[in-house]
Amino acid sequence: MKKSSLAFVLLLLFSGFSAAKEVIRLTNGEWPPYLSANLHQHGYASHIVKEAFAAVDIDVVFGFYPWERAFQYAKKGESWHGSLVWVYSDERAKDFYYSDSVISDQAVLFFLEDSPLSWNDFDDLKGKIIGGTRHTKYPLIEKAQKQGILAIDRAGNYDILFKRLLIKRIDAVPQVKHVGKYFLKNSLTAEERAKVTFSPTVIQKRAYHLILSKNRKTNKKLIKLFNAGLNKIKLNGKYKALEQSFHEGVYDHVIK
After folding, report:
1. CA–CA separation, 167 vs 186, rounded Å?
2. Is 134 helix (H, G, I), strand (E, B) or coil?
3. What CATH code is assigned to 22-104+206-247?
4. Does 113 have pLDDT greater than 90?
5. pLDDT, tens digit, for every residue of 197-234?
6. Residue 14 pLDDT
7. Domains 22-104+206-247 and 106-205 belong to one CATH topology
8. Residue 174 near residue 130, CB atoms below 8 Å
9. Residue 43 β-bridge partners
């Protein structure tokens, strides 16, 4: 091979290596319209995470699992760097780096029309049974439980919780508005949907974050890069455009 040809091949090889983007692997789960294997761009929150990393030249690979498995894989930090999206807790922060807030939503109580909950503070929920999933943190509700005001009955996912609500095994289901409304629209019949409503009283505004395992040395740098990318898409208008698409229902439809 001529020297000029060899030099050209080497140039192509090295330029190829230099152009290769860093890849981050994140576990994900079903929480539409924010997260889903079957929605446009895997849901609104997934799309934000993808665009924030793209802004700092990092590609994202998502792996979809049941939530407990998604969390444990992310915590180990072996095949996966982390997970999305999670609320902050001191317990989780022992094992994960938390990003800036990716999305936020208002948590409310969903209940039956014929068993209305009129409440302003947790004392008004005295003796009520609140349904919850096993993996979700409910800081204020858990505090009320410790005070003996109410009980939390944890069982499975939101499909199970809303079924238990419909047969009056529990009094309410705490859920952020957009996820609860998506579930009612897509998982219940029209007859069932007409039986369920939610309280105007907001439990709390919940912020959700990307979490990266502290078991991977590079993750401390990656969480800083993600925050920089998130800030970048907020400044250049990309985040606002995604938010507009979200409110227009772009992430509400299953991709067939």
Report:
1. 19
2. coil
3. 3.40.190.10
4. yes
5. 998 999 999 999 999 999 999 999 999 999 999 999 99
6. 53
7. yes
8. yes
9. none
